[in-house]
Structure formats: structure tokens, C-alpha cells
Amino acid sequence: MRFCSHCGSSNIVFTTPKGDNRPRHHCESCGAVFYENPKIVAGFIPVWEDSILMCKRAIEPRYGLWTLPAGFMENGESTLEAAERETSEEACAEVKHSKLFALFNLPQINQVYMMFISELVSLDFSPGEETLECSLYEKQDVPWDSIAFPTITYSLRFFFEDRKNGTFKFHCGDVFREGSNSKFVAHEVLG
Ligand code: ZN
Asked: For residue 124, what pLDDT band results from cuts at 50, 70 and 90?
């Protein structure tokens, strides 16, 4: 960052502000501190009978790989509203009866994912601008080798495991990338 968005000064430094415990961009002219915090991604596993709705990405990163409808929250939204908006933007689809299903911390890239299970209202869906193709998949047909993000793989894995066991429960944990692999470290949750 080169200029202060409060006073316009170029007197920006990246050091630990007085009384703080880590370096941050701050303005030495007016004292403004520019905090950077994790971003929240909200999304759905949209369900229709035995299938779930997936989207093939038309944007980078991970162009051409498959994902679930999900994206960064905007200011003024709830997580559920963000997931609904993303589903409408990416798959032109509407969902109902949404329930929070998984929370993933991604400390390496400063993101938190909140994934809901929801029911597709109808088969009226089509690719939005950020999507090449959207399609319903049963478990055996999911393109497991072409999934865009580890959080999506874990969401689907937990979903199909829970469905097989006959009970859905809440999943929470940390996801770490290790080379081309990823690791899930579960947290305890109530229930
Ligand atoms: Zn300033």
C-alpha cells in the first residue's frame, strides 16, 4: 500500500503499531492502522434427490475444475445470504431449507469456509457468468480428480459419509495444504 486511505499521506510503514503485537501497515501521519483479517467464504451443497449440484469454474484460479456454489461474503450480508447469492450467480439456482454443515479454517491463506447443505428448489439451473457448466452428480459420478479446492472435496466427502450413516452432523476443522496434498484436522463440536 502506498497512500493512506484516510489522509492521503504516503507516510505508510509496515511495523508493529504502539500497543499492538504484530506488524501492520499504518500511517505515520494520521495514525490510521490498516488491519487485514481472514475472509469468509460461504457456500452450499445443493441437493436434489440422490444428486448434488456442482459448477465447473469459468474463472481463475482453478479454471475448468469443479466446485460447489460458494464465494466471498460481501459487507452487509449474512453467511446464508452470501451462499444464496453465490448460488444464484454461479448456477442461477434457488435453494431452500439450508443448514450449516461444515466450517473449515484455512490459516495458510487466511480464509474461513462455511458450507451449508440445502435443497434445490427446482431443476431450473444454468451456468452463470463464472461457470462453464453446472451439473447434478450422484456420488459415483462426482469428478473427484477435478475438484477445485480441498474444502470442496472435504465437504462432499463428509456429506456422502454422513448420508451413508443416516445422520448429518456438523463438521469443523483446519485444512492445511502440504505440497499437492491437503490435511484435515478436526475440531470437537457440540452434539
Ligand atoms: Zn493517514
From this structure: very high
For the segment 4-39, what is each residue's pLDDT rounded down to a tens digit?
Answer: 999 999 999 999 998 999 999 999 999 999 999 999
**26 alpha carbon – ligand 1 mean position (Å):** 8
User: Cβ neighbours of residue 51 under 8 Å, at least 6 residues apart?
Assistant: 136, 137, 138
Half-sphere exposure (CA, 13 Å, Cβ side) for 164? 9
Instruction: Find where cell 443448514 sits.
Output: 99
Residue 19 alpha carbon to ligand 1 centre in Å? 18
Q: Transcribe 142-159 into DSSP letters.
A: S-GGGBS-HHHHHHHHHH
Q: Which residues lie below 8 Å from residue 80, measured CB to CB, with a gap of 6+?
A: 42, 98, 116
Task: Determine the distance separating the centroid of ligand 1 and the alpha carbon of 33, expressed in angstroms.
Answer: 9
Helix (H) or strand (E) holding 176: strand 171-178
pLDDT tens for 47-100 read 999 999 999 999 999 999 999 999 999 999 999 999 999 999 999 999 999 999
